[in-house]
From TrEMBL:
Belongs to the cation diffusion facilitator (CDF) transporter (TC 2.A.4) family. FieF subfamily. This is Cation transporter. Residues 14-212 form the Cation efflux protein transmembrane domain. It is a multi-pass membrane protein. One of its GO terms (cellular component) is plasma membrane. InterPro entries: Cation_efflux, Cation_efflux_TM, Cation_efflux_TMD_sf, CDF_Transporter. It is found in: Membrane. Keywords: Ion transport, Iron, Iron transport, Membrane, Transmembrane, Transmembrane helix, Transport, Zinc, Zinc transport. One of its GO terms (biological process) is intracellular zinc ion homeostasis. It comes from Paraglaciecola hydrolytica. GO terms for molecular function: cadmium ion transmembrane transporter activity; ferrous iron transmembrane transporter activity; zinc efflux antiporter activity. Its main location: membrane.
């Protein structure tokens, strides 16, 4: 029941992200048309990308909850980091495109805009995006969902983008009304260059983290050390020489391949006893972290763990 409740909450949050992204697309493109602002147009394009990504995310959220089948023997969770990798690459390309376009605009003499109306958009977009990001981040703390986490980051980026646009419009409005109107057209493209460069580190980090999961790289040593410590505690009744653990993270799942190298004092009468050890260890580990999936092998020859 708890898992089903988390799944429903995840879908509810992702649907909220989808509907709000659609709303912001119409608002941004409408204001971009009225104000002739390249920065607002960029914000609208970003929201449009977020909308289509939200559609994909909602589809993936349904897929990753399905059990393994004949096509995907290890389930669908690997699709999650793949989608996040794709989303981060799209955002990176969008930022780079905006930077290059803005530099061209600066060299051509800038871009004038209706800054008073643009400021209204800036206030609306900043409050809206940051509020959605905060809400999704708070609600996602109890969920094991990288999809919701990345979506919250996406809205945070959009919120920072909108806040910076608002600040730039305020500066441009001041320049126009205090005798420096000739410099005002440079604010819009200059703002886009700064924003693009400032935003890039966030999708780059998401890209690298997702890529590590896609290629099966082990989690950081600090994480694996804690997992190995908990695992050894769950096997405290087993007389072993050494435990070899291989760990990988794929989306919301953490997979452990455990080789228990037993000593000569270890003996069992039936295979069921081994099953009971496996069940007890996995139950203890999943109580600590429900995302853990384990396979446990008992061996005498340490070379078989290599």
């Amino acid at each position: 029941m708890a898992i089903e409740f988390h799944q429903q909450n995840e879908k509810r949050l992702l649907k909220l992200s989808l509907y709000m992204a659609g709303l912001f697309v119409f608002v941004a493109f409408g204001f971009a048309l009225i104000t002739q602002s390249g920065a607002i147009l960029f914000d609208g394009v970003y929201s449009l990308i977020a909308f289509f990504m939200a559609l994909l995310t909602l589809k993936v959220a349904n897929l990753v909850q399905l059990p393994d089948d004949d096509r995907f023997h290890f389930g669908y969770t690997a699709i999650e980091p793949t989608l996040n990798l794709f989303k981060s690459l799209i955002i990176i390309v969008t930022c780079l495109y905006a930077i290059v376009g803005s530099i061209s605009s600066l060299l051509a003499g800038g871009n004038a805009a209706e800054y008073d109306l643009a400021m209204i958009y800036g206030v609306f977009a900043t409050i809206g995006c940051l509020a959605i990001s905060f809400y999704m981040k708070q609600r996602s703390k109890s969920l094991r969902s990288d999809l919701v986490k990345v979506d919250a980051h996406t809205w945070l980026i959009d919120g920072v983008l909108s806040a910076s646009i608002l600040l730039g419009f305020i500066i441009a409005y001041g320049l126009e009304h205090y005798g420096y109107a000739a410099y005002a057209p440079y604010v819009d493209p200059l703002l886009l260059v700064v924003l693009g460069l400032a935003i890039l580190p966030i999708p780059c980090k998401i890209m690298l983290d997702s890529l590590k999961e896609v290629i099966g790289k082990a989690p950081p040593e600090a994480v694996t050390a804690v997992i190995e410590k908990k695992l050894k505690q769950s096997l405290s009744t087993v007389p072993y020489k050494h435990i070899e653990v291989r760990i990988s993270k794929s989306g919301r799942d953490i997979y452990l391949l455990v080789h228990i190298i037993v000593d000569e004092s270890f003996s069992v009468a039936t295979v069921r006893e081994l099953d009971n050890i496996r069940k007890a260890s996995e139950a203890a580990m999943r109580e600590w972290d429900p995302s853990i999936i384990m396979d446990i092998l008992f061996i005498c020859d340490a070379d078989l763990a290599d």
